[in-house]
Amino acid sequence: MLYFDHSATTPIHPDVQSLINELNQDIYGNPSSVHAAGRKAKYVVETARKQIANTINCDPKEIIFTGGGSEANNLVLWNMIYRDRKHVITSSIEHPAILTVLQQLEHLSITHTVVPVNKYGCVNPEDIDSAIKDDTGLITIMMANNEVGTVEPLQDIAKVAKKHDVLLHSDGVQVLGKLPIDVQKLGVDMMSFSAHKFYGPKGVGALYIKEGIAMKPLIVGGSQEKSLRAGTENVGGIAGLGCAAELVTKNLSDVGHTLTGLEIQFKKKFSEQNPNIIYNGFEDNHLPGLINLTISGISSDLLLIHLDNEDIAVSSGSACSAGTISPSPVLKAMGINDKQNLETIRISAGRDNTSLEVDQLVETMTRAIAAIRRNAQ
Questions:
Q1: Which of 78, 141, 156, 311 has a CA-to-CA distance to 102 between 20 and 30 Å?
Q2: Residue 377: what pLDDT?
Q3: Which Pfam families match (predicted)?
């Protein structure tokens, strides 16, 4: 298979899988137990905590392990119930794990304001500044968008948040392993991560919480994770997250350069054979290797079926619900009309993709597009 859907999920790195297999076999103690088996498991968990902390430049005690990025986002947002200032500011292109939760919280008197983005999917910090009210307690803006790859001006947004003494959370799920993350330089108070987006296992994530920020648990019961996430820890999964975080941040600039090279190669060769292609999002300030493109007159879902039949994996921004295809809210927020929205696909390269595979992708896509146009006549 030619896999070009790394923004959806990544394959587990072989070293990560080997570690998980070994730990699941040999480290079977409960990390909360005081005996030797428990202490060994606890050591594994704390080692992973140090690994992810080193990756984003924070103290290990500022890391909480979760069941994934969505849970981490939920933990941040549901804590608004306990805060004095109950107004949240977010953007129109956030993940459903932000926007859907905020809709639910409306029933509990948690209000929110959605600021717009420009045609590139970028938030204007001045719009956030203008949206702040006396009871604003949280700003939540993703570090980079999962559909078009636009990197948001988090440092400038952090200045706005600090000026008004408002907490800043960022969904960093798409970024780890693609761009450097330094939570100190970014100025964020909280940031969410998900292991399966950076060659780790599914079902495990992490939340950075700056020291001194009061939080209450979303899942209650035991006292695991500083009493913020009850339940016996997924030792193997947590170790896999830590290992993956460490692996993907080695030679990060080289990897970024390689992914950018594959992206440039695709755009050049594909555009030569397929004129009038629209590339969405910033040309430069975006996640390396992520391409969001609109092909006029070509249904993205029909193109995906053709490519899937050729054993090629890419994705569309549209969502399917009860058999009805609906346009991507992200692209709509960027001003892309419904027709073009449903003619848009996302290609996201990964560390193992090659120049030869990009050529194969271009050739197969071009052939599929020609077939679709012929059949439409």
A1: 156
A2: 78
A3: Aminotran_5
320 given a catalytic annotation? yes
Tokens, residue 242: 């830590």
- For residue 345, the SS3 value is strand
Q: Give residue 127's Cα distance to chain centre.
A: 23
In the predicted structure, residue 264 carries a pLDDT above the cut 50: yes
Return the structure tokens found at 180.
């450097």
Closest Cα to residue 206, out of 373, 366, 52, 43? 52
CB atoms near residue 370 (< 10 Å): 12
Q: Rounded to an integer, what distance in angstroms lies between the CA atom of residue 238 and that of residue 47?
A: 9
Residues 6+ apart with CB under 8 A from 296: 276, 278, 340, 343
Distance (Å) of CA 47 to CA 26, 181, 194, 222, 292: 16, 19, 17, 21, 37
**Domains defined along the chain, listed by start:** 14-248 (3.40.640.10), 251-376 (3.90.1150.10)
Q: What is the pLDDT of residues 183-232, one digit of tens each?
A: 999 999 999 999 999 999 999 999 999 999 999 999 999 999 999 999 99
Other Cβ atoms less than 10 A from the Cβ of 298: the count is 21
The token pair that represents 290 in the structure block: 């992520």
Exactly one of 58, 122, 243, 320 is catalytic; name it.
320
- 3-state class (DSSP) for residue 11: coil
Integer Cα distance of 169 and 73 in angstroms? 9
Judge whether residue 305 has pLDDT over 70: yes
